[in-house]
Amino acid sequence: MQEKGKIRVGISIGDLNGIGCEVVLKTFEDSRMMDFCTPVVFASNKTISQQKNHLKISINYNGVHDVSKALDGKFNVVNVWKETPKLQYGEATEEGGKYAIKSLQKAVEALKKGQIDVLVTAPINKNNIQTEEFNFPGHTDFLAKELNGQSLMFMVTDDLKVGLLTDHVAVKDVSNAITTKLINEKIATIENSLKVDFGISKPKIAMLGINPHSGDNGVIGKEDDTVLKPAIKELVNKGHLVYGPYAADSFFASDGYKKFDAILAAYHDQGLIPFKTLSFGNGVNYTAGLDKVRTSPDHGTAYEIAGKGKADHSSFKEAVFSALHIFKHREEHKELTENVLKKQKVGR
């Protein structure tokens, strides 16, 4: 983090033909946001000017050619490209994917160098970003390769946190992908994130079953009995507060889920459908388990409303605040840990 400045929030602009630019500009159109952080957007002056004029969003920006020139109290734009990409709102174009990648790569490069403190990513299209050089299903997989740690797709709000045991995996491959080793890794990542990133000292975690009704004692699939239950039992025996597996169809139907600090879903839609339903568009996608903080809104490019000025920026704004809170929690945890170690050394 910059010694005297506010937390620097790096922002990758996402697909230029989606709502990424719109939600970013709307978030920081409120100048009070600059009281909390210093935004650093990786795009270009021309692109930002083009987007804000089209969307009729009133915002002043500080264009720079180097991240180090970003100023506190300003909406900073790092010029990653000089040309003016053609905007085709609502269309998944090759050019849209090309500039989404350029923005993301430069932002991650700055994050790794410590030039920005956290990263918030605007939505990309998983199809038009694919090239021979960039072949990842999405942000999470790219970041897992570029940064250190074991990544976990963690959907979070103040009251609800849902992690994914498997994320961008085809449904037909889910059961084969789930192993005792994977369960232990994901539980360890969730526990550490809840402690370090959210300040929860003794986290309670619920696991959802793989099959309907958690397999009904083997009648509807055996994976819950042969993989999940033994893994949970072993974790409990080691002192972890892990419960389940719970039948996913009824788990979120009452307030029972609120008794847990986090829920680990077996696969993508099992976790994201209830999360997005309950979070009402204010949820945040957080890549937990890495040595750097990255968040994003819980929605996609929304081509159907792109360029129309109709995008709701609530989730992006929450993603910014979540990144700030998590970064501060990490700094506090680091300081506390260092103080404890110092006391132990003095005591010797």
Descriptive notes:
The structure is a single chain. The protein has 348 residues and is of the alpha/beta class. It is built from 10 helices and 12 strands. It has helices at 20-29, 45-55, 94-113, 139-146, 174-177, 180-196, 223-237, 248-251, 268-279, 314-347, and strands spanning 8-12, 38-43, 62-64, 76-79, 118-121, 149-156, 161-164, 205-208, 242-246, 262-265, 284-290, 293-297. The chain has a 12-stranded mixed beta sheet, with helices on both faces. A hairpin with a 2-residue loop joins strand 11 and strand 12 (293-297). The radius of gyration is 21 Å and the shape is globular.
What is shown here, in short?
The chain is an alpha/beta fold. It has helices at residues 20-29, 45-55, 94-113, 139-146, 174-177, 180-196, 223-237, 248-251, 268-279, 314-347; strands at 8-12, 38-43, 62-64, 76-79, 118-121, 149-156, 161-164, 205-208, 242-246, 262-265, 284-290, 293-297. It contains ten helices and twelve strands.
